[in-house]
Amino acid sequence: MTSTPAPAPDPSAPPAKPPFDTVAFLRTWGTTLFLLLLIIGFAAWNPRFLSLRNALNILTEVSIYGVIAVGMTFVILTAGVDLAVGSLLAFAAIAAAWVVQHMGGDLPQWLVALSVASAIGLAAGYAHGKTITWLKVPAFIVTLGGMTIWRGATLILNDGGPISGFDAGYRWWGTGTVLGVPVPVILFALVALAGHVTLRYTRFGRQVYAVGGNAEAARLAGINVKAILISVYVIVGFLAGLSGFLLSARLGSAEAVAGINYELRVIASVVIGGASLSGGAGHIRGTLIGALLIGVLSNGLVIMHVSSYFQQVVIGLIIVAAVAFDAYAKSHRGKV
Amino acid sequence: MALLEARDITKRFPGVVALGGASLRVEPGEVHALLGENGAGKSTLLKILAGAQGSDGGQLTFDGKPLRPDDTPSQRQKAGIVTIYQEFNLQPFLSVAENLYLGREPLRMGLIDHRRMRADARRILDDLGLSLDPDLEVSRLNVADQQMVEIARAMTLQAKLIIMDEPTAALSPREVDILHRTVGTLKARGIAVIYVTHRLKEVKAICDAYTVLRDGRFVSSGQVSDVSIDDMVRLMIGRDVAFLKRPARQVAPTPVLRIEGVSRRRGAHEARGTSLDNISFEVHAGEIVGLAGLVGAGRTDLARVLYGADRKDSGRIQLCGRALDIQSPAQALSAGIALVPEDRKQQGCFLDHSIRHNLSLSGLKALSRPGGFVDEGAERRLVETFRQKLRIRMSSAEAAIGTLSGGNQQKVLLARCMALSPKVLIVDEPTRGIDVGAKADVHQVLFDMASEGMAVIVISSELPEVMAVSDRIIVFREGRITGTLEACAADEETLMALMATGSAPQAPNP
Q: Contact at 8 Å (CB) between A80 and A136?
């Protein structure tokens, strides 16, 4: 603020090589270490935990909501949130099943269902994004509304009942394997890879980070902020639709109560993975670890015969602890 | 005995000395003008008096008692020093009366006694000669009335000294009159006022005494009646700043940018900003045009309109002879107009993101392969080119831009614009808050770009800077152009007069 000529020490001079920083190390690798410790712990408790069957079972469970968590990473990077994903998943699944049942035609069931579920996800995501940017309603409110709307629509569509009776081709998407790997796991891997590459290596990815880091600066840097915001809700919507398709294929029926509380599990995955709810920081690798952590924990606690009520308490504690540690690490960095 | 005595106050920030011995002596019931150019240290001194910032050295005495340097703002308020900032400190959705007694509401059986609060508020407002309704929600008041609520609040706090920071910056002439009358009322009640303003006519009209700061130091003080406006201007400037001399430049005869009759009314919901009234000028290839003016003169508002960050209401903008209708910064950039915004941290940088990502952001299209993949090799080469060209001092391109000094951050933002090779570059306060060496570097960059044929617009509140870098200086005051001068023919007195009063002094000083 002043033009006083003062001999200023140069703050940009390259610093000496810093000593090993435990806090910074734990900030990057803490959740991964914790995940490994959990796996070792559960395996020591009960060797069945590490059996191939159980491992694949965990991975398949994780894949269903992990697919959405990849999309949620994009949303949270822009400092947004999508609470509607669980309901949207159910609606896309039941609408797809309804179309298969009532106007199937000659096309394969899975193709019809996949197309319908994806299309519904894309359209709903676009509607969310457009409402957020155009009417300037906060994402929390728009998707809170969406959460109720899509759940209601799901119940209306088949009077609250499930739709089942899919053929083998449909069910393969949820229960089949390729070279021993369950199909949902393969799809999750592909989606996560695509998400990682997009965020890390593309212009769009850079713009997502920029919008979340500082929306005003992003606009002044020539980024179409509204288009980016709409895109991320379209992405998460599409992936919620895809997840709905996978879940109904796995269960063999589209349930009106499917995906309840998924939004929380998905958001928790992203946040445990180190993403900041205020936007601009986070990555798919972290989300992957976060999603696995929740999956391993749920499964491991079951194997340890911990009640499902108690599981919720544990998962809640871990979410808060992860974020608290991140906040502590940030202030620690500020002090050095 | 003086009401307030500040002696040899010093304050250092990393890299700069904001105050290097500032002194101020205010008598009871006196209206005291605190004068100085932008960057002279007025704001820092005010913050120290208000308790918003601690001082590093010096003594403060108030009402016969020494003040502790680590007082909080509320402790200073209790002592009787109340500060009214440009950004008001009101709760917009509470009523006038609730704001006046916020945190000190009169109670009856443990509950807020609304009747008494309203009556007390009414009495205070009457006392100030104000006809405001105490039940009105503050958000529904205009700026001038909100300021009156602030003053009334100071009265409820039993203030002995009220500090007003640029109180008339956002007021219309009629509202200024009302404020001046209110200041008169305060004075009649024995309350002292420290009045910070750039408008020297106001100083002559309502202030008793003055103190001038320059470069963070006390320069002089005295009675306003003993000095002329010209004297005050001389006291405020009186320094030699060795800026780089402007090299002789080849200015093309045809304008690159032509602005004709641009007007914009500030929207009712906008917290800050100045309405623009019929702005017209041209900028040629290879020319640096400096926009001089006080804070809030409308220069930034014009820059935002040119860049598509705000909409204009009327007027035409032509670029290289073609009419432009720019709706967004994205369109401005693709048309060839770039802006380095005023507020580096809030509007320019992504502080947690790397230098590389910050630098390339606007030009990613040119760095992309088919499919939208960023060519990181080309990106790193771009960063390296600008690191050398602009002498950006950084340990690594992967470090967060927030770890750089202000000057180096500014260079990264300049590089972001330069990478696009725009036809018109607008830089808003390019050297605010950066040290002298980096200032010279930034100026050199602007010279280089102009000599490469770019049309450059520089907005700066530092007159020596405007005079050093510009070929032509356009002076803004309250949203209008009050004068255009060739830089070689401009002197600080004339510019200051055009900025502060809108007309050049009758008898130019030798």
A: no
CB pairs under 8 A between A and B: 135
Asked if A221 and B361 come within 8 Å (Cβ–Cβ), the reply is yes
- Judging contacts by C-beta atoms under 8 Å, the chain B residues touching residue A210 are 350, 353, 357, 361
Query: B203 CA to chain A: closest CA distance, Å?
Result: 23
Residue B327 lies inside a defined structural domain of this protein: yes
Position B392 in a domain: no
Fold of A34-329: ABC transporter involved in vitamin B12 uptake, BtuC (1.10.3470)
| Within-domain flag for B507 | no
Closest CA–CA distance from residue B333 to any residue of chain A (Å): 7
**Interval A8-45: pLDDT, tens:** 444 444 444 556 777 778 777 888 888 999 899 988 98
pLDDT confidence of B271, banded at 50, 70, 90?
Answer: low
Cβ distance A217 to B348 less than 8 Å, yes or no, reads yes
Cβ count near B201 (within 10 Å):
12
Phi, psi for A136 (deg, rounded to 5): 55, 40
Q: What percent of chain B has pLDDT over 70?
A: 93
Show the domain range for B33: 4-237
Which backbone phi and psi does A251 adopt, to 5 degrees?
A: -85, -20
**What ipTM does the predicted assembly reach?**
0.83
A334: Cα separation from own chain's centroid:
30
- Spatial CA neighbour of B280 closest among B327, B317, B322: B317
The verdict on B268 and B337 lying in the same domain is yes
Separation CA B27–CA A23 (nearest Å): 54
